[in-house]
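Assess the record.
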Amino acid sequence: MPVVSVLMPVYNAERYLKEAINSILNQTFKDFELVILNDASGDSSKDIILSFKDTRIKYIENEQNKGLSFSRNRLLSEARADYIAWLDADDIAYPTRLEEEHRFLKEHTSFAMVASWARLIDAEDRPTGNFIKSYIPNEYLSALLLFVNYFVQSSVLLKKSCLPEVHYRPEFPPTEDYDLWVRIAANYPVAILSKTLVDYRIHTANISSVQQQKSEKAVKLNHQIQLENLGILPSDEEVNLHYNIAFRKAESLVFLQQTANWLQRISNQNKISKRFDTKALHYILAHRWIKVCTSNKSLGIKALGIYFKSKFAEINFRNVFLIIKYLVNK
């Protein structure tokens, strides 16, 4: 039995597939199986996969295109190992990725899942200069997921035994991974290593306006369910407010005051439901508050006046830096 099952869903990925597969076969950690599912691709993906003769590769296929949620769940059903790693067919794993993530979970036995930072690359393999990084302490990541997801699917290694009974749910495409991480982090500690171990590809297929609209809809549903689990039954306007707090710049001083009231409501409700650790939630709410209040320099000094009236205002090195940057560059 392999120690790790690396799972790779494939759909029309001929341009990047060989590089993705090689990045797993060339890992410093050797005790794995690579299960590749071809979701009825119409290009040469199948031929590329079958051209590899490595015995650690297991090939399966869907007779008809079933989509990502179905394919990910089928891959999980085929995995034999106790540890599950993901790599999408257009991404690249660095050579020590499996070794470093497996070591972390072996040394931190209470943790269910670990991910890493990711470097963004374009369709031509060129680094964009951007990264997906989290500087949030691991013990606060469950509360962070109430707003945003910093777990890059292609960097995740998790314990199969910690998966919920229902894995990837079809209501959430294309952010079904976010939904799964939320449910895992609700029951177990999770972590993000402060190291870049994968390249995550950005191209027209995942930044189209249609894809963005689908993503926004799915994230809002995710937010709504999390708020309901907290004990808040949000209106559509409140779901939109929560989403905007997570992803948009402050449009007005009125929005800042609405944000302050909403964060306070979340804090008050958590005292009743105890959904999140109190310290962790306060950290995340304070983190979100300074980001929102310094997100739009055109709001000027009045934005800082509203900032300091909230109990989530804190004076620390990071916040002072953000405030100075806001004032100097306005």
